[in-house]
Amino acid sequence: MTATERAVELVRAAAKAADAKKAEGIVALDVSAHMPLADAFVIASASNERQVAAVAEGIEEELHKLGADAARREGVREGRWALLDFNDIIVHVMHDEERAYYELERLWKDCPVISLGPAE
């Protein structure tokens, strides 16, 4: 099983929006074979709480233009780990410290990386 075309479209839009807000370490993983709740994860980090919130809000705005609204959003106000669930994809915007501590890429290392396109 692989991520749907719609999920890949949302992943790339989320990555572009995160990059526009100066997020770092943007990576996308195809988790469809391991997780029934979503096709892909987008993981990005920011160096401070304010930037975490700005990146998360920028992603929400961009995906809204594509007709995708977050079904659930957690942690945006706190600015340490914002989780945005768009059903097809789940976006994690993490403070640098949380990203280093939780190492989501290591936990999901068996999942293929989704190409983010030429700006990758």
If you had to describe this structure to a student in words, what would you say it looks like?
The chain is α+β, with helices and mostly antiparallel strands and 120 residues long. The protein has a single domain (5-107), classed as Beta Polymerase, domain 2 (2-Layer Sandwich). Helix content is 37%, strand content 24%. β3 and β4 (81-85) form a beta hairpin. α1 packs across α2 (49-65). 39% of the residues are buried.
SS content category = alpha+beta
User: According to CATH, what is the class?
Assistant: Alpha Beta
What's the CATH superfamily, by name?
Answer: Beta Polymerase, domain 2
Number of helices: 4
Q: Provide the CATH architecture.
A: 2-Layer Sandwich
| Strand residues, percent | 15-25%
| Alpha-carbon Rg, integer | 13 Å
Determine the mean pLDDT.
95
Shape: globular
List low-pLDDT spans: none
Count structural domains.
1
Identify the strand order in the major beta sheet. 1-2-5-4-3
Number of strands: 5
Biggest β-sheet: count, sense, barrel? 5 strands, mixed
The CATH topology: Beta Polymerase, domain 2
Order of helices and strands: HEEHEEEHH
Q: Span from first to last CA?
A: 24 Å
Helix content: 25-40%
SSE layout:
Blueprint: H1 5-20, E1 24-30, E2 40-46, H2 49-65, E3 72-74, E4 81-85, E5 89-95, H3 96-102, H4 104-107
Parallel strand pairs: 2-5
Antiparallel strand pairs: 1-2, 3-4, 4-5
Helix pairs in contact: 1-2
Summarize this, please?
This protein has helices spanning 5-20, 49-65, 96-102, 104-107; strands at 24-30, 40-46, 72-74, 81-85, 89-95.
